[in-house]
Amino acid sequence: MKKAVIFSYLIATLFFLAFKVEILAQEKSTNLMADFSLFYEYNKNNDAKSAIPYGWKVINTDPTDFLKYKIFQKMEDMYWFEHDSTDIDDAAKLIVADTTLHLYEIAIKYEPEKIGYYLAKKAYILEMWKKEAAPIVIEAYEKAMEIDSNLPNYYKDRLGIIYAANAAEDNDYKLKALDLYSKLSEVEPENPTWVAKIENLASDINELVDITKKSWDLDHDNLEKAWKYASISIKAQELEKAKEPLEFLTSKAPEVINYWKQLASVYEKLDMNDKALNAYKTLISLQPDNRDNYVNVAVIYKRQEQLSVARGFLQKASNVSPDWDYPYIIEGQLYEQAARSCEFDFMAKCVYLLAVNTYRRAAGMGGQFASTGSDRVKALSNSTPTKEDYFFRKLNSGDTIKIEGSCYSWIGKTVQVP
After folding, report:
1. pTM of the shown model
2. Which CATH number belongs to the domain containing residue 292 in this structure?
């Protein structure tokens, strides 16, 4: 009987304690809601000094239920206002800075999905409010960006500025700044700011070439750094230097059109014609409908005096783009080149006439090179057969003349007497 009484007493005590805890929890929740309400009203009325104590009461107790009301962002706004927009002395500003940093540490615990944002803000405060040493600030910004690569470009630029300002022979800050701004310029190619900052990192373009080379050497498998080195080298007209990274890029990413275009152009400018031809032919295989590649090949063969082969690629360009006048301009040049290389006789004059006819066709298409075609027709007016040439050969208007002879066996065309 006694045991039953004791057991009943214990059960009653436990129920009482549970009830008491529930009452205290309700009181605590009610008090917390009241504190937040006061905080919210003071904040709404821009009364930071009155709002902040109530905000800390909520945050130090349990801000979980108030995250949806952005309690941390509202507290942050008030401290930033206190620091930047009120007339307080340096000692008070330092207290605001340290308190805001502490606020961010707590915010990260309750809002881990926003950690990048809070870490970036911490880095900014370390830099601008507390004037910490560059290594400390750099570490803070780097940590923020490592966690969240999608931070606003403003913070990335802040880091780039610090890199550039503290670059020295015994650190790699200049390389890091170059890499950072290179990535920004790729994300925002229309923004000239990033290109300007890249250029300002070096005293001249040649130093920039050396910087990008060093950056690539330290991370040789990095395609972005190889491309940056190649691009800067081309801009500096250091084509021999551009060749190495471009060859690397085409070997690692053989499907990327732009790598091949730049490499083919570099080979051509360096008079490495065989390699340029191979590069352009690779582009043709990758882009069979790109007319420019056929013409580029034709121009190289023209330069090598392989006129028949050159004309074949011009015809392929015309097949791709029948309304394009440029292939006919180059074809006319082929006939001029052939005539100049042989004795200036009646057949050479007929070849010049063939060139004139070809230029006329280009001019008649009304395209970009129409005026070029017309100019060449006028320029060759004294090189074509005269009336006397036709008369002595008993040729009349409308007669057909076959282009022939050892110099012109590749042409296989005819001209008509005017």
Report:
1. 0.66
2. 1.25.40.10
